[in-house]
Amino acid sequence: MAPVRDEMIVPVMATLLECLTVEIAKVPDPPKLIGFRPGVQIEALLSTLSDECCLGLAWVRPVNFYPSRNFPAPDTDFQRCAPTAWAMVLELGAVRCAPTAPANRLVLPQQWDATTVAVMDDAAALRRALCCFMDADPDRMIKADLWQPLAVEGGCTGGTLQVSVAALACDCVQAG
User: Which of 24, 39, 50, 122 has the most crowded Cβ, counting Cβ within 10 A?
Assistant: First the structure.
């Protein structure tokens, strides 16, 4: 039996990634690594042999999906047949190096200023990528959520933007 590729979520993620790739390239010193990332959270320093954080990393990540006939609300009623509509939550994100001080010194305020501006430039690229994504399929229902900064961890800082996307596909025809 041939493996079945996800026909509901992966194509939507691919479109969002195309938009992110175009928009993040417009940022001064753009992230060098751009792609899909799975998991509950992105471990920028643990996912490959390179220091993804300091190279700059931007991603699209599947967060969750659920039946939703009244987008973006999840279905709460008992279902007697397969869901006919879904909602998926995707995450756009970007991280880069946080400033670090040499031994016996402090990080200079100008270093934090420059890092903050870079993180906000990345945030603007995430917003533009979302606009591009919405323009790619103007009939699709999309709900943008909050942009959230990431805590400085392991020398990395950045932010994420989640978006809920309606999917009217049903992959139940492939079941059984």
Answer: 122
User: Distance between CA atoms of 53 and 26, rounded to whole angstroms?
Assistant: 19
CATH 1.10.30 at 10-174, yes or no: no
Which whole-number Å values give the CA distances from 72 to 53, 58, 87, 108, 147, in the listed order?
Answer: 33, 25, 6, 44, 18
**Which residue type sits at 70?**
N
Q: pLDDT by residue (tens digit) across 52-96? A: 778 899 999 999 999 998 999 998 887 777 777 899 999 999 999
**Does residue 149 have a pLDDT over 60?**
yes
pTM: 0.88
